[in-house]
Amino acid sequence: MLGDRCERCREAGPPGGSHDRAARGHAVTRHASPTPRGAPGGTCPAIRLGRVRGSTTAVTTTSTPHRMPPGGVAVTAAAGVLTTLLVLSINAGRFVTAPLRTAGLLWPVYLGLLVLGVAALAGTGRWRRTPVWGLPAFWFVGLGWMPYAWRVAPDPEWASREVLLLSYCAVLSTAALLLGRRASLAWWRRGWVLSLVLAGAVAVWEMTTAQHLWVHPWPFQPRIAVATYGNPNNFGIVTLAMLVAVLAWRAESRSRAVRAGLGVAAVACAAFAILSESRSAVLGLVLVALLDVSRRLAAHPGLVRATVAAHRRVAATLAVLVGMLAVASFVVPALAARNPLVRMIHAALQPETAASDLFRVRVSLLGLRYWRESGFLGTGAGSFEPIMWNDPASGIEIEANLHNAFVELLMQYGVVVFAAFALLLLVLVRVWWTTRLAARLRPRVGIVRTELAGHLLVFAALGLTASSALTLTVWWLVLANACACGARLLDLRAPRDRRGPQEVSAPGVGGSAG
After folding, report:
1. Which residues does the annotated region (Disordered) include (predicted)?
2. Is the dihedral of CA 476, 171, 415, 131 positive or negative?
3. Which of 71, 178, 185, 218 has its CB 3.0 to 4.6 Å from that of 75, i.e. a possible disulfide?
C-alpha cells in the first residue's frame, strides 16, 4: 500500500475529518511506504484516488474539485426524473399517447421535452461527446432529406404518416438523450425497471385472462402476451433492453436488498422473453447473458473455479437438479405441454416457419432491388408497400411489411441518410471496442461497456425482427440509450487518459462489479 496520510491531513486531525473528505482538492506528492497491503490506517483519500497497486514509484497527482453544471442539483434531478418518465411513457404506448392526442397536447409535450433537454445541457459542455451530438446530427440529416423523400413517394398518404411517426421518434429520442445526459445512466435504468413493472403486469393479465389491449382481431395464440407492444416478438425483445438495464444497475449497486430485488427483476425479464415464444428474443437472451457472464469473469478472474472448489457438493447437487428438471420439462408430457421452449422448437420445425424465414429474406432482397432502381437516393417515405403492391414482378402475393428496418431505411431514404445512420453506429461500436482494455482495469467501465453492447444487440434484434421497427419510438429509444452509454464510457476513460498510464482506479471502486 502506498504512503500514509499526507502532511496536511495529519495537521487537520484524525482520519475521516472534513479535510479527508475534501482531500481531492489539493495537490499531493506521495512516495512508497513499507506499510503492507491491507494494514490498518490505509492512505489519505487524496492519495487513494490515484493509487497504483503494487507500485513503488513516486507519483505527483493534482486533482481539481468537481464543478456542478449550471443550475446545480435541482436541474440535474429534474432532468433525471424526466428521463425516467420519458422511458416509461414510451414503453407505455397508447396509455400515454392516446390521452395526449385526444387533448391535442401531443406535439406541445414532445417539443417541450426537447426544449427542456436542450436547456438542461446548455452551458455544461456535456454535449461535446460524439455519441451525444451524433444522434441529433443523424436526425438533422434525415429530416433535411424528408422533402425529397416526400416528393418521390408513390403514395402521399403513406408518406405523410411515416414522416409524422419519424418526427415523433426524432423528437423523443433526442429529448431522452439530452435529458439523460444531464442526469446519469441511473435514471435510464429506473425508467426501464418501471417499464418492466408495467409491461409485466399487462402480460400477466393477458396470459391469465386471454384478453388483450389494442390488437383486434387477435392473430396469435390466445394466452400469449404482447403487453403494450402489439406483437410477441416486439415484447420479447424489448424485455431484453429492460434486462440490460437491470443487470447494469445490479452490478453497480452496493445494497444487498437492491441487488436481491434486481435479481428477481432479471429473472422476470428472462421469463417474459421466453414466454413471448420469440426465437429472436430467446437468442438475444442467451447473448445478453453471455455478455454479463463475460464481464463478471473479466472483473473476477478465476471466480467460477474458486466458487466451485469451495462448494463442490452444492455445485454438483445443483447441476444435477437443474439438469434433471431441464430434461423433465422436455420429456414429461405434462411439463412439455407447458414448456414454451418445446412449443418454439416444434414451431421452428414446421414448414410454415421455414417459409416465413425465407419470406423475410425475399422481401429484404426486394427492398434492395427497389433501392438500386431508385438510383441509390431512395424510393421515398413509406414507399415499400405501395411499390410492392403495384409491382407484378415482386413475387409477393400478400400484404406484408419489409421486416428489416435497416434495409427499409436504406431503400426509402437512400444512401445519404443511411450513411449518417451507419456512421453513428460505427461511432458506438468504436467506443465499445476502444474501451476494452480499460474495462479490465476499472469495473465501472466494464459495466457501462457491457450495457452499451447489450443495447446495441437489442437495437439490432428489434430492427431485424419487427415487421417495421423504423417508426417504433421504442426502437429509437434503445439507440438513444446506447448513445448515452457511449458518452458515459468516454467520460470514464477521459480522466485516466489525462492523468497518464499510472492513474488506474482500484477494482471495485464505484460499484460491486458483481
Report:
1. 1-47
2. negative
3. 71
Number of alpha carbons in the 13 Å side-chain half-sphere of residue 117: 24
| Cβ neighbours, 10 Å, residue 514 | 17
Sign of CA dihedral 274, 276, 277, 283: negative
What is the C-alpha separation between 304 and 379, in angstroms, rounded? 53
| Residue among 101, 21, 1 nearest 65 (CA) | 21
Question: Rounded to whole angstroms, how far apart are CA atoms 143 and 166?
Answer: 9
Closest CA to 485 of 433, 450, 438: 450
All structural domains of the chain with their residue ranges: 7-61, 72-301+401-499, 302-349
| Cis, bond preceding 36 (omega within 30 deg of 0) | no
- List the beta strands (DSSP E) in 382-508: none
Three-class SS of 353-398: HHHHHHHHHHHHHHHHHHHHHCCCCCCCCCCHHHHHHCCCCCCCCC
Please count the other Cβ atoms lying within 10 Å of the Cβ belonging to residue 256: 9
Q: Which DSSP symbol is given to 40?
A: T
SS3 317: helix
- Secondary structure (DSSP) of 341-353: HHHHHHHHTSHHH
Question: Looking at this protein, which amino acid is placed at residue 379?
Answer: T
Backbone φ and ψ of 360, nearest 5°: -60, -40
Residue with cell 414454451: 340
Indicate the SS3 state at residue 270: helix
CA dihedral 420, 423, 425, 426 (to 10 degrees): 170
Distance CA 170, CA 182 (A): 19
Strands 28-30 and 59-61: antiparallel
Residue closest to 180 by CA, chosen among 108, 85, 109: 85
- In 3D space, the residue among 25, 32, 27, 33 whose CA is nearest the CA of residue 61 turns out to be 27
The verdict on whether omega for the bond into residue 217 sits within 30 degrees of 0, i.e. cis, is yes
- The torsion defined by the Cα of 68, 73, 79 and 80, in degrees rounded to 10, comes to 100
CB 488 within 8 A of CB 448: yes
Q: What are phi and psi of 60, to 5 degrees?
A: -110, 125
